[in-house]
Amino acid sequence: MARTLPAELSLRKLRDLILDGDPGCVCDPELFTGPAGIEPEDEPETNQAARIEVARQVCASCPVRLPCLAYALRTRPAAGVWAGFTAEEITGLAAAASRRPVRANPAPLREANRLTATVPGQGKGGASARSAEVA
Ligand code: SF4
Predict the structure, then answer these.
(1) What number is the average pLDDT over the span 63-74?
(2) pTM for this one?
């Protein structure tokens, strides 16, 4: 998939782009959400960190990562890994995109900046501005 998105896409269209684009997470959803039947706080920390790292690697090569990021920035999921970011990181990116004061981890911002660098119509506004426009 091209690394650009039209300026305005509905959530439904973004969802359809993701589902129709062979998303990498369909083969093992629990890798992205955590083990079924186990509350997130009950998943051992080392297991969770390893699981999230593998999920990030799957996302890195996913053909629909950009619409997935746009979808997550709009819906702000409470859990899971989306486009290679944890729900907490998505919240930080979305807040940064809306230019609210945040203490966002700069690593997700740099990665989102790289991912959305070719969104049309975006000038030099920094990662948060570009992220806001695709969301
Ligand atoms: S980027 Fe990751 S979470 Fe999003 S659709 Fe692809 S594999 Fe799934």
Answers:
(1) 95
(2) 0.74
Do 134 and 119 contact (CB within 8 A), yes or no?
Answer: yes
77 inside domain: yes
Q: What local confidence, expressed as pLDDT, does residue 129 receive?
A: 33
Q: Worst-scoring range by mean pLDDT, 81-90, 113-122, 126-135?
A: 126-135
Residue 85 pLDDT exceeds 80: yes
The answer to whether position 45 is within a domain reads yes
Q: Is 52 within the bounds of a domain?
A: yes
Assess if residue 66 is contained within a domain. Answer: yes
| Mutual angle of helices 45-60 and 65-75, in 10-degree steps | 130
Domain housing 23: 11-99
> Ligand 1 pocket test: which of 18, 19, 25 has the largest number of ligand atoms within 8 Å of its C-beta?
25
Strand locations in the chain, DSSP E?
A: 81-82, 85-86
The structural domain count of the chain equals: 1
pLDDT for residue 44 is more than 80:
yes
**CA-proximal residue: ligand 1, atom 4 (nearest):** 83
- Tell me how far apart the alpha carbons of residues 132 and 57 are, in angstroms, rounded to a whole number: 24
Torsion-angle region of residue 99: left (phi > 0), alpha (psi -120 to 50) or beta?
left
